[in-house]
């Protein structure tokens, strides 16, 4: 076994990546403080062909050196938009027929392995602030909450790790549906 060289990976040009079909998943970053987390979420979104990212509240936006440090160019391949007021955004998405969820531990959370997306729906998931999580205001506006099962002492994951776990769950579902 040998590691593949960069030229063997057959990477697509950014304009080709932007034109490819996307997983019907939108990530909404609510007041994510760390620009490195924002960049990592862009990179994960590129890898999993996620439809769009909304950056809300105090969440930093490209171009920024720290975002680019972890995004490695994914800000050029993933559609994104900044929206100051997340409540307005959530209401607009809901009125457009998009199913709204949050990645949060709540009294009504659905365990991620038990959640199967509906084939014909577009989903938008709120990922919250590193310290406070998803705001109560946003939780009041979403249709459901997903929780990633955890078995250690901390019961919390880095927001970029959460985006990766949830992104993979959705991508896996759609890959299985396409086969």
* H and E order: HEHEHEHEEEHEH
Q: Summarize the main sheet.
A: 7 strands, parallel
Strand order of the largest sheet: 3-2-1-6-4-7-5
- What would you say the CATH architecture is? 3-Layer(aba) Sandwich
Into which percentage range does the β-strand content fall? 15-25%
Could you say which overall geometry the principal axes of the C-alpha atoms support?
A: globular
Number of helices: 6
Question: Please, how many domains?
Answer: 1
CATH superfamily: SPOUT methyltransferase, trefoil knot domain
Query: What gap, in angstroms, lies between the N and C termini?
Result: 28 Å
Query: Can you identify the CATH class?
Result: Alpha Beta
Rounded to an integer in angstroms, the radius of gyration calculated over CA atoms is 16 Å
